[in-house]
Amino acid sequence: MKSAVIVFPGSNCDRDAAVALERITGNAPHMVWHKDTDLPEVDLVVLPGGFSFGDYLRSGAMSASSPIMAAVKAHADAGRYLVGICNGFQVLTEAHLLPGALMRNAGLNFVCRTVPLIVANDETAFTRGYKKDSIIKVPVAHHDGNYFADDATLEMLEGEGRVVFRYGENPNGSLHDIAGIINKRGNVLGLMPHPERVVDPMLGGEDGVPFFSSVMEAV
Amino acid sequence: MTSTVEATKDTMSEITPEIVAEHGLTEDEYALIVKRLNREPNLTELGIFSVMWSEHCSYKSSRFWLAKLPTKGPQVIQGPGENAGVVDLGDGDAAVFKMESHNHPSFIEPYQGAATGVGGIMRDVFTMGARPVANMNALRFGAPEHAKTRHLVAGVVSGIGGYGNCMGVPTIGGETNFDPRYNGNILVNAMTVGLARTDKIFYSAAKGVGNPVVYVGSKTGRDGIHGATMASAEFDDDSDEKRPTVQVGDPFTEKLLLEACLELMNEDAIIAIQDMGAAGLTSSSVEMADKGGVGIKLDLDQVPQREESMTAYEMMLSESQERMLMVLQPGREDVARKIFEKWGLDFAIIGITTDTGHLTLSHGGEIVCDIPIAPLADDAPKYERPWVASKQQDVIEASEVKAPETLSSALECLMGTPDLCSRRWIWEQYDYTVMADTMQIPGGDAGVVRVHGTQKGLAVTTDVTPRYCEADPREGGMQAVAETWRNLTATGAKPLAITDCLNFGNPERPEIMGQFVGCIEGMAEACKALDYPVVSGNVSLYNETNGQGILPTPAIGGIGLIEDVSRMATLAFKDEGDVILLLGKTIGHLGQSLYQRHIDGDVKGAPPPVNLDKERKIGDFVRTLITNGTATAVHDVSDGGIAVAIAEMAMASGLGAKLATPSEVEAPHGFWFGEDQARYIVTVKCDDAHKVITHILEAGIKVNRLGLVGGNSLDIEGDAPISVEKLKATHEAWLPAYMSTN
Amino acid sequence: MKAHVHITLKNGVLDPQGKAVQNALGALGFEGVGNVRQGKYMEIDLDESDPAKARASLEAMCEKLLANTVIENYKIDLEA
Amino acid sequence: MKAHVHITLKNGVLDPQGKAVQNALGALGFEGVGNVRQGKYMEIDLDESDPAKARASLEAMCEKLLANTVIENYKIDLEA
Ligand SMILES: Nc1ncnc2c1ncn2[C@@H]1O[C@H](COP(=O)(O)OP(=O)(O)O)[C@@H](O)[C@H]1O
Ligand SMILES: [Mg+2]
């Protein structure tokens, strides 16, 4: 599988994502600078975690209008896979590639914690390697992870099975305990927890491995 | 252009004794300046002298004593004197690290003060070519009941997180204390460890004449002017007046600066590089020139400025953050400019190195400063301040301290005190897993990060027990070093070197100076005995309000190397049936213990004595038990004694233990809560126990078999058992409850 | 020309910060504090001197970047 | 009674957010954008109906909680 990681100024999980992708897929991803306008031909694009543009104004807002984003949208429109992790999820909502918004955590503090995550849908390209309703342990580390959408949107997400991950213990006040959602077509997913940080048994588990290997099998 | 400073003098306000005093200089110091210059300085020059000769920059009260610390060893690549210390990790890897205080700014504006402290220490590390891989923070707050404490804790913690998290550097540990002696002067000490290649380390000595001096990073504003002199002044009740000197941190810009600097360091372009920290442009340019033995000429009109009509004085004294000064190879300016522009940062050539030995500044077409560099740096005043030794305290026998109703009730009480409760509320606000190399998260003996792409681990800890330092500065200084050594050892790491942050009261008072001297002597002795040199550090004096000094707090930051992270120890119990051993001798020393403080009600007496030979022998032995795979869990014994150590091992695992007090013990509370040094709790598999005990005894080390891991409560024979769950609930409760009340 | 832009959360969008402020004010002993909503306020200097053009340009800025119109409203005022 | 509170950075205090917004607007192709300063804006509902009392109480709130007076100024407006 070929992949690319977009590097925004202030991204800081770009290396973590690259290490995880190389470890699991065997290929090092392309690292693409946000000012570029072309994407290499890849199967998966990752918008990594971090504090792009310092999280100033709103998390993900400035990145969402970066030059590379047109190519990222085209990649998604072509049905290829796109995932946003943490800050990447915030970018996806700001770019309107996923509905809703990520607000300040209900407790107002940054929260770094390994949380139980429930796999709410195991039929997506990202979660086929998990079993529905199984509980995996994945760290979160964010300040703005409190998922908000209006009632109609929530109803739609639930009705269409688009809530992919739910918190077992909600760390941030997200509505419906939402930790990750997918678009209607099933190729664009955003989640706040960091699967790329749990792909090595020495570092607190491998519960993130199926996330990446599922996509690899899907392509 | 006029060529002498004399010509501009009459446009400057005359230097009055009041102006001299406002700059924190004594009359004698001013007289010395006039003598060295052979004339009166103008205001800009006076400002420059005042920051360079401040306690913060010149270490005038401490230099004499700092020289007593051992700084050498085969592992040391760079000792004190550079932006940070450097030690060898083998295979071409080096660790670059330092700790620094941001006490006064954090008291005035906790969020920004702490944030810019973290930003500053990270710059010290990446200036040397290292990518920061771990942050630590050592915090001291006033009494929980004090009106300001909660607000300060909230602000400091979110400031540290706000900066470190944005930089993408994991914060993997620290320490936190509360004591009324910090009511008016909190301590915020931040430490950063970075990784570099031994052949790619960058230094600050400006070499060569005619080389371009380059400014990069953020623009200069009127931030923190006189921050460095403020950091050296005592507080009084109208210190609110000093507020505008607070700087606002911009971690996003610093992240860009980090990436841009590391990118440029891959090119052959930098001769010297120095961050602009305290005293900004002044200290960076003077220090670079002084170390390289050259002069420097700056054209202040070229300095990127955020505000209009800034004066030379303001530009030289501004402490705007996120800036660096570099001397480049001539001809490489464009390579550098391109990189900084890519990252959206200011880049300006603002000067040139010269052969004059002078710092020469021009502004608006006039020379506004022309002073020899040597007196600014090397010839700064150095004081051997008078000191008196602290009074020796009597040793208190355990039998003189009242026994608790039950050991378990005392333990439960202790685990819920501000001194021993869980710091989770703090460290969950820090991203400790970013960079995906964190092997031990906060909550253990030391934080551990893997050296990226290798099997090596870097263990990091910070420690000091201020109440011991006050009761006996020398023992306290030794103990602080020994405890870091022990915490590193408990993970299986070989301790390599330390950095320090020496926080004390007003050195002009002989008792305070006596504490300083005692602590340094104790530290020096421990460093020598443990082959554990000091490679960097920082001194923060005048932590005093209305004549009340803080507890003497020489915070020590230690780092150690784990050769193979698959052979690392953690403190959590592993399996039912494992045998719990105590290594090291227990007398039951309760003087200055937390038991005394919380159960008996009064802290007094001598602190536990430190025996460095034993410390080393037992630690080395424990490390082999870890590296040969025999130890299943390890934890050192410190605050709260054996009972607390075992409780921490139980809570981390959810497993309980069946324990018994050794038959020869006369005062069980002394045994379980005494804070005797050089001890570890080690668990081993039941089958190995006999053999291990024999080996320990053969090595001449005292060992007690305390019991077995198992069940879900801590159960000391003859005492009331207590469930691990209950202990954990108590342990986790205090801090979040405290922080959520108003 | 100077512009003042207010960005506020739409009705029905939850406001964790406003809520926390409201609670904190109560805990500090301030009585009779009802709903608190927190928004952003920006002062923007513009070269443009024609008010109509400035407003049009500011609207575009708000739509594209300054506000997230899924959850936020904006209001533009030009300094006379 | 409803109050509007503006909290802005004092003159000379670095505003990283405003600076980043200014750069981002430039990158998006908006021309002639000068200085941008970002502040907070709060709407607070109060039971108090006496304007003088409301203002006094709001001032206390700003001093104690809403503004960080080390680096920020505040401005209180009461809705008629
Ligand atoms: N300010 C802090 N930041 C991060 N971690 C902290 C902080 N304060 C305490 N900790 C963590 O809490 C644990 C307990 O601290 P402490 O009692 O000082 O440990 P020890 O007795 O082993 O030195 C340690 O793992 C430490 O790293
Ligand atoms: Mg310890």
Write a structural description.
The complex is a heterotetramer, with one copy of chain A (219 residues), one copy of chain B (742 residues) and two copies of chain C (80 residues). Chain A is built from six helices and eleven strands. With 219 residues, chain A is an alpha/beta fold. Chain A has a single domain (3-218), classed as Class I glutamine amidotransferase (GATase) domain (Rossmann fold), CATH 3.40.50.880. In chain A, strand 1 (3-7), helix 1 (14-25) and strand 2 (30-33) form a beta-alpha-beta unit. In chain A, helix 1 crosses helix 6. The mean pLDDT of chain A is 97. Chain B has 742 residues and is of the alpha+beta class. Chain B has 26 helices and 28 strands. Chain B is globular, with a radius of gyration of 26 Å. With 80 residues, chain C is an alpha+beta fold. Chain C has one domain: Phosphoribosylformylglycinamidine synthase subunit PurS (Mth169, Chain: A, 2-Layer Sandwich), CATH 3.30.1280. Chain C has helices at residues 16-27, 51-66, and strands spanning 2-9, 33-46, 72-78. A three-stranded antiparallel β-sheet of chain C has the order 2-1-3. In chain C, 36% of the residues are buried. The mean pLDDT of chain C is 94. The interface between C and D is medium-sized, with 33 and 33 residues. Bound molecules: adenosine-5'-diphosphate and magnesium ion. Magnesium ion (MG) binds at residues 445, 487, 636, 638 of chain B.
